[in-house]
């Protein structure tokens, strides 16, 4: 996953406005919220910051 570090400084979780951290689940890149735990997919190095597309914490 290649996301510009400057972009990572300004994007936040659209649900709770918490910080996002890079992670992976089942070989899929994603950004995980440190607040609510939602995991947003990253497709072709583009974060998909839609709550409907996020994986819920288990």
Describe this structure as you would to a colleague:
This protein is mainly β. It has a single domain (5-53), classed as N-terminal domain of TfIIb (Single Sheet), CATH 2.20.25. It contains one helix and four strands. The chain has one helix at residues 5-10; strands at residues 20-25, 28-33, 39-43, 46-47. It has a four-stranded antiparallel sheet with strand order 1-2-3-4, with no helix packed on it.
Global structural class: mainly beta
Shape assignment: globular
Could you give the count of β-strands? 4
- The CATH architecture can be named as Single Sheet
Approximately how much beta-strand content do the residues carry?
25-35%
| Nearest-integer average pLDDT | 92
What percent of the residues sit in helical stretches (DSSP H or I)?
Answer: 10-25%
Order of adjacent strands in the largest pleated sheet: 1-2-3-4
Distance between the termini: 23 Å
Which key terms come to mind for this protein?
single chain; 4-stranded antiparallel sheet; 4 strands; 1 helix; globular; mainly beta; N-terminal domain of TfIIb; 58 residues; 10% helix
